[in-house]
């Protein structure tokens, strides 16, 4: 199970990349993707939507269940990953790479994020 | 109730294969090993290996075993020959379905009833009570068997390489004692996936050896271990009911479109006879809700309990739903009012978390294998 060191994480199992030119990328962790099973449908926020840290902004549906997607940060959506909408399995095969979900122009620093080490601790024993 | 989950004889093996485990009816069972979609497709095109040891085996022996079963169940068990099996239901006095069962006739006066894991205790209690007036012994054999299933088009070849048993002579819904990979087994052919396949009832101490032998025998033809998640999508595509979803105590077999399993012509009384006769008459005069298939036009998956709607009105309820790997679309089974249950009925949809999603009404099953 990989947990890249360069990302920040949330208790809801999203990851948040470094901010480049005010924009950060968001996805779900490998741990979350494994727990979901095969993802078959992704409803992502639309470009221009405003998202709020800790609030739902979409959903991921798998064979067995549907899970709400929470935004790890507040801001405005500048891109949603169309590849994932077309081929949701990317979330399973490459959760930290091609399976990213959306990019957000952040309006304020996230308050409730974890380091890779903290997130690993949170998911250990599961 | 004990809270510690029950483990099958294959538990350590599942974990060594990296299975995601899940609680199912008090048992720790493999949900999937890797991708449930891959497991599903393997069973459709090659072969899958399942641990089904959570199923509940109950044995009836003695001169009046068959009479007891004819009284306890809705089927005509006296017409089942040695080495054959029968799908049937056990009902309450009011006709409600307690469980759906497979009954195997193992010998002249020996029958094995296989109940769903979630109902095993209830079925055991009911059979014990209903058999009390007959010269028969009801035995709880839940711990006497591990149950492995190999399912899929390659399964006859895989099994044939491990046994001298006459598999060609073993028809659908038959069972015979034999030896597989040196292990004494009851070999049955009563799949629940829509594919050809076999169930192997063996002593728990032989389960690991048999699993490994099957794995090795299937290596060259793409056999994979398969979990309960793909089992659910396989049976859903095959239009097969699952207790707790399509079948409940609130429904009679006639409500479930399975009135054919009730055999009024058999001799003597059976539990539920009067109520079921009334239910049969009612079903003939006024069609109840009908169990139909639904295929999504969009990509959102209907789940059990979601309302089926027409023109803003609720006209039914989803009982099972999942993305179908074979059709590439979400599918569901649902009970729908008769006037909206005809294949091709227009304007029918499912309310998915507040939005009306259009669905096509189709006859079951969604998938039928090419024989």
Automatic annotation (TrEMBL), chain A:
Q: Which residues carry this modification: N6-lipoyllysine?
A: 64
Q: How is the cofactor bound?
A: Binds 1 lipoyl cofactor covalently.
| The protein's required cofactors | (R)-lipoate
Domain (Lipoyl-binding): residue spans on this chain:
23-105
Q: Key word Lipoprotein present in the record? A: no
Keywords assigned by UniProt, alphabetized: Lipoyl
The function of this protein is: The glycine cleavage system catalyzes the degradation of glycine. The H protein shuttles the methylamine group of glycine from the P protein to the T protein.
Tell me how this protein assembles.
The glycine cleavage system is composed of four proteins: P, T, L and H.
Family as reported in the entry's similarity comment: Belongs to the GcvH family.
Q: Which NCBIfam families match?
A: gcvH, PRK01202.1
Report what the protein is called.
Answer: Glycine cleavage system H protein
Q: Which organism is it from?
A: Streptomyces virginiae
From TrEMBL, chain B:
Cross-referenced Gene3D superfamilies, in alphabetical order?
Aminomethyltransferase beta-barrel domains (3.30.70.1400), Aminomethyltransferase fragment (4.10.1250.10), Probable tRNA modification gtpase trme, domain 1 (3.30.1360.120)
Which transformation does this protein catalyse, written as a reaction?
N(6)-[(R)-S(8)-aminomethyldihydrolipoyl]-L-lysyl-[protein] + (6S)-5,6,7,8-tetrahydrofolate = N(6)-[(R)-dihydrolipoyl]-L-lysyl-[protein] + (6R)-5,10-methylene-5,6,7,8-tetrahydrofolate + NH4(+)
Superkingdom to which the source organism belongs: Bacteria
**Which stretches make up the Aminomethyltransferase C-terminal domain?**
289-368
Show where the GCVT N-terminal domain sits: 12-266
Under Enzyme Commission nomenclature, its number is: 2.1.2.10
Question: Keyword annotations for this protein?
Answer: Aminotransferase, Transferase
InterPro entries noted in UniProt: GcvT (IPR006223), GcvT/YgfZ/DmdA (IPR028896), GcvT/YgfZ_C (IPR029043), GcvT_bac (IPR022903), GcvT_C (IPR013977), GCVT_N (IPR006222), TrmE/GcvT-like (IPR027266)
Q: Which Pfam families match?
A: GCV_T, GCV_T_C
Family designation: Belongs to the GcvT family.
Q: How does it assemble?
A: The glycine cleavage system is composed of four proteins: P, T, L and H.
Relate the protein's function as given in its record. Answer: The glycine cleavage system catalyzes the degradation of glycine.
Protein known as: Aminomethyltransferase
> Which species is the source of this protein?
Streptomyces spororaveus
